[in-house]
């Protein structure tokens, strides 16, 4: 395995291992299903690379062939029109204007057609990658929702619950493990997004990948702040019990 590429197989293996760890400790929690969804997206992203590489090969071949055809037809039309005009001795200077206008229009239309055909492969890759990135961004928010109600302040000895306070069924150790799993899932979401950029130089795709990566880092930072609070509470409780 080379060190210059992010390999989807390694990301998938890490996600499957994480799913097993979550299932072993929290088998009845929805976080297991979130990990399974992420595994499915990673498998889909690996398919993006393989399938799109094959699709792009023949798509580029077809588009380049059509570009050559457009160029040939345009040149033939222009040469034929000019040859006909030069062969007609009755044409005056003013009568050359429609011919020049038609030639310019043909060149403009040919340029538009060539640009459209040239960008077809990249637009196919962009469309598939953006759909996957949109799902990854949604999954990142779902992971954030799973940790959102896990408030470490409820572990404080003097915490007073209200009628609107949800029940926290995790102790300090379980809460730390749960939050760490959420952080690891977010990290893998970012890695999966990075897989979309491995075979793309499209600025829109790269910007979207960066957005998803920044989102996962920001969400993970909030989780680690909670983990730090739980650690401090556990140390305080341990020191007070001595």
Automatic annotation (TrEMBL):
Keyword Transmembrane helix applies: yes
Record key words, sorted: Membrane, Transmembrane, Transmembrane helix
Positions of transmembrane segments: 61-87, 107-125
Keyword Membrane attributed: yes
Name of the protein: Uncharacterized protein
Species assigned in the record: Nocardioides turkmenicus
Native organism taxonomy: Bacteria, Bacillati, Actinomycetota, Actinomycetes, Propionibacteriales
């Amino acid at each position: 395995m080379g060190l210059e590429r992010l390999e989807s197989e390694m990301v998938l293996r890490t996600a499957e291992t994480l799913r097993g760890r979550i299932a072993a400790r929290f088998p009845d929690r929805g976080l297991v299903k979130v990990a399974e969804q992420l595994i499915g997206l990673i498998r889909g992203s690996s398919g993006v690379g393989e399938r799109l590489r094959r699709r792009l090969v023949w798509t580029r071949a077809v588009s380049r062939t059509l570009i050559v055809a457009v160029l040939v037809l345009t040149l033939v039309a222009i040469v034929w029109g000019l040859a006909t005009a030069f062969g007609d001795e009755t044409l005056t200077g003013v009568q050359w204007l429609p011919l020049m206008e038609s030639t310019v229009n043909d060149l403009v239309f040919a340029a538009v057609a060539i640009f459209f055909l040239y960008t077809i492969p990249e637009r196919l890759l962009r469309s598939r990658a953006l759909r996957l990135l949109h799902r990854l961004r949604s999954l990142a928010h779902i992971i954030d929702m799973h940790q959102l109600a896990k408030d470490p302040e409820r572990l404080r000895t003097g915490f007073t619950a209200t009628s609107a306070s949800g029940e926290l069924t995790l102790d300090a150790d379980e809460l730390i493990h749960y939050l760490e799993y959420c952080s690891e899932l977010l990290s893998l979401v970012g890695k999966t997004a990075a897989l979309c950029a491995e075979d793309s130089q499209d600025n829109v795709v790269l910007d979207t990948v960066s957005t998803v990566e920044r989102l996962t880092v920001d969400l993970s930072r909030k989780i680690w702040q909670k983990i730090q609070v739980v650690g401090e509470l556990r140390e305080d409780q341990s020191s007070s019990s001595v």
